Amino acid sequence: MLNINYKKLESIMREFNISCPTCGIDKIVKIPTEIFSKKESGCVKIHVPAGIVCSDHQFVVFIDQKGIIRGYEKIDLILATKTTELK
Ligand SMILES: [Zn+2]
């Protein structure tokens, strides 16, 4: 008897060619397909930190449930986690 682990199948990674909306550098990024099946409606929004695709910029990528990249959103301001000392 063949026992297929559907839970495991759901967590398969899918490759996306994601490009930086600011400078156009692109890279293949693996995203778990599970995120698309969990999403009931609309696009999946993925925050791509600097260093993943582009070393200088971070952005948000919108991918629909079919796995089609719908758009990118540039991030205008990143709030620092460290408090800077005033001199
Ligand atoms: Zn960039």
What this model shows, in words?
The chain is 11% helix and 34% strand. The strands form two sheets. It has a three-stranded antiparallel β-sheet, with no helix packed on it. A two-stranded antiparallel sheet has the order 1-2. The protein has two helices and five strands, in the order αββαβββ. A hairpin with a 5-residue loop joins strand 4 (59-63) and strand 5. The radius of gyration is 17 Å and the shape is elongated. It has one domain (10-74). Bound molecules: zinc ion (ZN). The site of zinc ion (ZN) has 7 residues, from loops.
Number of strands: 5
Radius of gyration: 17 Å
Cα shape: elongated
Total count of domains:
1
Spatial separation of the terminal alpha carbons: 72 Å
Q: Tell me about the biggest sheet?
A: 3 strands, antiparallel
Poorly predicted residue ranges = none
Share of β-strand residues: 25-35%
In order across it, which strands form the biggest sheet? 3-4-5
Mean pLDDT: 87
Q: Percent of residues in helical segments?
A: 10-25%
Bound molecules: zinc ion
Record keyword descriptors for this entry.
87 residues, mainly beta, two-stranded antiparallel sheet, 2 helices, 5 strands, binds zinc ion
Write the layout of secondary structure elements.
Blueprint: H1 6-10, E1 13-19, E2 26-32, H2 34-38, E3 44-48, E4 59-63, E5 69-74
Antiparallel strand pairs: 1-2, 3-4, 4-5
This protein binds zinc ion.
Would you kindly provide a brief summary of this structure?
The protein is mostly beta strands. The protein has one domain. 11% of the residues lie in helices and 34% in strands.
